[in-house]
Amino acid sequence: MMELEAANLSKKYGNFYALQDFNLDVHKGECVALLGPNGAGKSTLLKISTNIIHPTRGTLKIAGINVQDDPMKALEKVGPLVELPEFYPYLNGTEILNFVCKVKGASKEKIKDEIERLSSMLKMEEFINKKSGSYSRGMKQRLALACSMTMDPELLILDEPTFGLDPRGMREFIEIIREINVKEGKTVILSTHLISEAREIADKVVIINHGTKMLEMKNERETNLMNVTFYSKPEASTLETSSIKVIEDHGNTVTIQRDENISNDDVIDYFREKNLKIRWIEPTNQIERKYLELIN
């Protein structure tokens, strides 16, 4: 089932196209990352998806309903997190969630259940009854995500949800989103400018630049590609075997591809046998390579 369909979508400001002839299909249960630099058009697409702005031309449908024609119906099962979250500082998290649930028509019993469910899921018990003016950036992001998840939406639309978080906060937030997608079965569309985030979280990655879709590709989380940095530039002849191939050479750093019948540990053991001193090694995949090829 198609959860979201964008067809020939464009948004023009004067002579400038923030989005141009954009097409995208998102299936139920997918996690799709919109990957691109700042100003690429990611937020424009998400704002059209949530009816914050209207397209110059083209259509965007959610669950088969045109968002511009019938926004109330189309967005009925959508949980948005667009723009930086801010709350009235004198309200605590419970009061804010209570208000959001009321706006969505929840009963008193349902509101209590929703606050308990979301507080537990997003690990907000320690601060949910504190005034939001005292919240850190990570706490505000969790509360904003909780607001978007009230009343059990089918589709979450998240605009750079880890922006401004420290590494630990980013890691926790990524794990939460993956859990929502995998365990809860929710469809997720998120924007990011971080290759590592898109690679880790998404089933499908859409690379955007200058308002145009440059590439759409499946994310292969298990990869046989590795970036290896050595302390000194190795001889090419010492790197390759019948099972290990160098596909990119940048001096001290190379990208190698291993056969499926050997593991990453086997590659490391081989380099050690050849007395090659490794400074850094990490798995990679086609997303990073394609992104760097397309985005100058």
From TrEMBL:
Which InterPro entries does UniProt cross-reference here?
Answer: AAA+_ATPase, ABC_transporter-like_ATP-bd, P-loop_NTPase
Its domain of life reads: Archaea
The record places domain ABC transporter at: 4-235
Which key words are in the record?
ATP-binding, Nucleotide-binding, Transport
Keyword ATP-binding assigned to the entry: answer is yes
Q: Name one GO molecular function term.
A: ATP hydrolysis activity
- Keyword match Repeat: no
Q: Would you identify the family this protein belongs to, as annotated?
A: Belongs to the ABC transporter superfamily.
Its protein name is: ABC2-1 family ABC transporter ATPase
Originating organism: Cuniculiplasma divulgatum
Q: What is the lineage of its organism?
A: Archaea, Methanobacteriati, Thermoplasmatota, Thermoplasmata, Thermoplasmatales
